[in-house]
Write a structure and sequence with these properties.
49% of the residues lie in helices and 14% in strands. Strands 1-2-3-4-5 form a five-stranded parallel sheet, with helices on one face. The chain starts with a strand and ends with a helix. Strand 1, helix 1 and strand 2 form a beta-alpha-beta unit.
């Protein structure tokens, strides 16, 4: 009875006019057909601004981004030619969550962690970064060997055993925090 349309791949905010068109068109058609339509947008938040955020909130679009840990790790994994990717992502994560709270909405932005070789020795640091930004869950995602990652596996890749050790340490720390 419902449908979710997700904008992702590359950076959907690059084509903001099309995102808005699809949201408005699909919402209109869903209303005509008495159907439910939801929207999700996956963004690195580099092109987010107050107007876009207001629009997305008004249309109840679920938001998600990537957050690969500390400023050092995130900037290493997600290099911006014109700035600090961590600074921009962390600013908007906080702003989006504040906006959800002001609107009385319980959801929060989703952030996905891509674990690289640089992350493996820092499981507690990664969890602490998520906590410091008000994110109450973490998805410890293994590196997928395609796209940019495929071209640089020698520098960012790792074995299954290395990932499993990272995962165990992070999970142990999360459980320790939950007990306290």
């Amino acid at each position: 009875n419902g449908l979710t349309i997700e904008f992702q791949g590359g950076e959907p905010l690059l084509n903001w006019k099309i995102v808005k068109f699809i949201i408005e068109y699909a919402s209109e058609k869903a209303k005509e057909k008495n159907k439910i339509v939801r929207f999700a947008l996956v963004s690195n938040l580099s092109l987010m601004d107050e107007q876009k955020l207001a629009y997305l909130m008004d249309h109840e679009v679920w938001l998600s981004t990537s957050l690969d840990g500390s400023e050092e790790i995130h900037n290493f994994n997600r290099t911006f030619l014109d700035g600090n990717s961590y600074e921009k992502a962390s600013y908007w994560i906080k702003k989006i969550n504040e906006t959800y709270a002001k609107k009385g909405r319980k959801e929060r932005i989703w952030a996905l962690l891509t674990v690289t070789k640089k992350t493996l020795s820092r499981p507690k640091e990664v969890v602490d970064v998520y906590r410091s930004l008000g994110l109450n869950w973490i998805f410890l995602r293994v590196l997928n060997p395609y796209g940019f990652a495929a071209r640089d596996l020698e520098n960012i890749g790792y074995t299954h055993e290395e990932f499993f050790e990272f995962f165990k340490q992070a999970l142990s720390y999360i459980l320790e925090l939950n007990k306290s």
